[in-house]
Design brief:
transport; Raffinose/stachyose/melibiose transport system permease protein; transmembrane; 14 helices; mainly alpha; MetI-like
Length: 275
């Protein structure tokens, strides 16, 4: 039987152009990282004639890469764990009570409205508050990331929780389970797909965040990876070769995580979008 489906050339062309737009900056970062200043001056877009892999070793030394990577891992891991434990409980309480309680319904819209508040508006109060509470460290940064993720995560979690049949909780109540036990033994395991989605998104956003650590962290020993990249920005010149080598090293872990976990993001958001 002959296949009568026609190729949608406009869509294919748009996809190809989109792919080029996405991959071209990565190509530029990789080629610049493997050149020296003379090669970059001769040909910015061409492949390097002399591959300078020592740029990566120099970038690691200049930025104290492994200490900054350790700080980023600590903050990212702590934020993901706290977010999954606390945000899921908040969303569960709202999702199961917002239909019959105006308080929880108002609480839901209160959290969602926080997504529309620009960060620069609250930046100065955050600096003063964290300084007064002695939270200008990695622990304070972890707590702030967890709190800032709450607005979006409540929105995502509530949509998914409302798709879980209430009959499961009623059956657990009949068997003598408390609300706490019902959540941790029944609801939380069923939230594995959306937990994976939220965890991955929080991991990516926390690991790559620059502005919040910039205004919170003052001790250079606590700098995260995005902050140490700033060392290459001089007043009169910028060492682009070492800078791009450092950028590639910093983003490599997140690229690997995303490549292996992208299916969880798509499936979790899709399942949470319908009831």
């Amino acid at each position: 039987m002959q296949d009568t489906r026609k190729t949608n050339w406009p869509i294919n062309i748009l996809v190809a152009l989109g792919t080029i737009v996405i991959l071209f900056p990565l190509y530029m970062a990789l080629t610049i990282a493997l050149k020296d200043p003379q090669q970059m001056a001769q040909s910015l877009f061409g492949l390097p004639t002399n591959w300078r892999f020592d740029n990566f070793a120099n970038a690691i030394e200049v930025t104290n890469f492994f200490q900054a990577f350790r700080n980023s891992v600590l903050v990212t891991t702590g934020t993901v764990v706290l977010t999954l434990l606390t945000n899921s409980m908040v969303a569960y309480a709202i999702g199961r009570n917002m239909q019959r309680s105006k308080f929880f319904k108002g609480l839901y819209f209160y959290f969602v409205s926080a997504m529309f508040i620009p960060f620069p508006i609250i930046m100065l109060p955050i600096v003063k508050l964290t300084a007064s509470l002695h939270m200008t460290n990695l622990i304070g940064l972890t707590i702030l990331h967890t709190v800032y993720a709450l607005a979006f995560n409540v929105f995502v979690y509530v949509g998914y929780i409302r798709s879980i049949p209430v009959a499961l909780e009623e059956a657990a109540t009949v068997d003598g389970a408390s609300t706490w036990g019902t959540f941790w033994r029944i609801i939380f395991p069923l939230m594995a797909p959306i937990n994976a989605t939220v965890g991955i998104l929080v991991c990516l956003s926390t690991y790559n965040d620059f502005l919040l650590p910039l205004i919170i962290i003052s001790d250079q020993n606590m700098y995260t990876l995005p902050l140490v990249q700033y060392i290459f920005q001089g007043q009169f010149n910028t060492d682009y070769n070492l800078a791009f080598a450092s950028y590639l090293l910093a983003m490599l872990p997140m690229i690997i995580i995303y490549l292996f976990a992208q299916k969880w993001i798509i499936s979790g958001v899709t399942r949470g979008s319908v009831k």
